[in-house]
Structures are given as structure tokens and as C-alpha cells.
Amino acid sequence: MNTNIERDVRFLKRYAIVTSTLLVVLSVAAFTRSTQHAKFDEIDVERINIREPNGNYRMVISNRPRSIGPIYKNKPFGYEGGGRPGIIFFNDEGTENGGLTFTGQRGADGKYRASTHMSFDQFNQDQVLNLDYGDNNGQRVVGVSVNDRAGVDIHDMVAERDSIMKMKDTVARNASLKKWAGPRNGEPLVAQRLFVGRDPDKSAILNLSDRDGKPRLRLLVDSLGTARIEFLDATGKVVNSVTGSPR
Question: φ, ψ for residue 14 (rounded to 5)?
């Protein structure tokens, strides 16, 4: 009996040594493989997350269903994902700071909608530099715009709006939303200051606006080839115009 026990003990010791050795070898092999560069001729994926060593998002490339929603310091906020196919960029803190999205399809009625949008965001805010193409079945806008944004944290803004939306009193809710969307310390939440591109009227146009986002100087060549410079007041009325026609 003792002989059998001793034999079993020796077997278990040998088994433990062999198993431990194999685990070490496999661990080293796995570590070695993880430091190597993989090369693929072609891959099919639905989403790629590029992260910093600390886990922060740096860039997300995805199709529509797997697209990411807004992220603030690595935490979702605002609305769910699933509607922004393309590429989303993130800053050093893991907060979204721009992206590239694109859509385009024809509906059952034969009409189509298409868009391409590339934006760069103000720190902890929303887009301030845009490159856009929008097409609603032939009604096209193509251009570059520069926006001003109030110096208020977007996460705080969204939290404030979400709190207002929970109000049951419709009149009070609408009044609070109007106040929420108003200027902060005299500065509009957002104001387009510059647009250069092609408008729905097929004009090549340059719009320069005041700090409230109201166009005050416009240079354009319309769809008939007529060129002019327009000066506008704060209500949008043209108060002076210069054309290229001879006097």
C-alpha cells in the first residue's frame, strides 16, 4: 500500500512540474506574439476601437449599428450610438473632439438623401470647424463653416437639458428650454461666423457674420453668373450692394 502511495505521489509531482513548465512556455509565447506586428492583406470588421495605454478612446471606426454615441471622459452621455457611421476622434482625456461621418441612400419614393460631415470640436464643447456636403434630392449645400461656441461645458449643458426635459409642466418646460438655449453671459451657445461654399440657390457664396451669427457681409456669384457684394443690418436686410456692372 505504501509503495502505491509513494508511486502516486511521485507521479503527481512529475505531473505538476510538467504542467507548470507548459504554462510558463505558453505564457512566454503569448507575450512574445503580443509584441509582434500582424500583417493582413484584407480584413472585414464592423468596428475598430483605438485606445491609449490607459484605456482612453482615441479613435473609433465603425459601421452604423455599432457606431458610438457621444463620449465625455470615456463615459457615454447625450444619446445612444447607432446613427453615426464613420470615424470619431477623441482628445487626451477620452472626450469626443470631432469626426467624419457619411450617409447616402434612395428611399422607396425614389428620392435620395446624402451627406458627408467632417468636424473639429471646441474643447469640451461641440463643432467649431466643419466641412459639409448635404443633399436632399438635389437641394445641395456644400461648404466650410467656422462657428463660435459659448465657453460652457457640453456635459453640464446636456445634463441641464435632460433635467428640464423631465419637467411635467409643458409651459414651464418650454420656458426653461428657451432660457437654456439662450446666450450665456451675453454669448450665444453657437453662432456661425463664416461660411464659404455653394448654397441651395446654386450661388457661390462667402458669408461673414457678427458674434450673434447674423450675416453682415456677403460676397456671391449667383446661378446666373451675376457677382455682387452685399452689406446687411442686424435684421438681415441688405442696406447696400455693390455689383460688377459698369456704371
Answer: -65, -40
Q: How many other C-beta atoms are found inside a 10 Å radius of the C-beta of residue 60?
A: 23
Rounded to whole angstroms, the Cα distance separating 206 from 197 reads 7
Strand order in the sheet with 227-232: 47-51, 57-62, 86-90, 96-106, 112-121, 127-136, 139-149, 190-198, 204-209, 215-221, 227-232, 238-243
Cα distance between residue 201 and residue 171, in whole Å = 38
Beta bridge partners of residue 121, listed in sequence order? 127
- Using the predicted structure, report yes or no on whether residue 11 has a pLDDT greater than 80: no
Average predicted confidence (pLDDT) for the chain? 89
Statement: the pTM of the whole predicted model exceeds 0.85 = no
244 confidence band (pLDDT: 50, 70, 90): confident
* Cα 223 to Cα 204: distance, rounded to the nearest angstrom: 8
* Contact (Cβ atoms closer than 8 angstroms) between residue 216 and residue 208: yes
By C-alpha distance, which of 97, 99, 98, 90 is closest to 56?
Answer: 90
Query: pLDDT by residue (tens digit) across 36-62?
Result: 778 889 999 999 999 999 999 999 999
Instruction: Provide CATH code, domain 107-149+189-247.
Output: 3.90.930.1
The residue ranges of every structural domain in the chain are 1-39, 40-97, 107-149+189-247, 151-184
Rounded Cα distance, 215 and 236, in Å: 7
Number of neighbouring beta carbons within 10 Å of residue 137: 13
**What was the pLDDT predicted at 8?**
59
User: Measured in whole angstroms, how far is the alpha carbon of residue 88 from the centre of its chain?
Assistant: 5
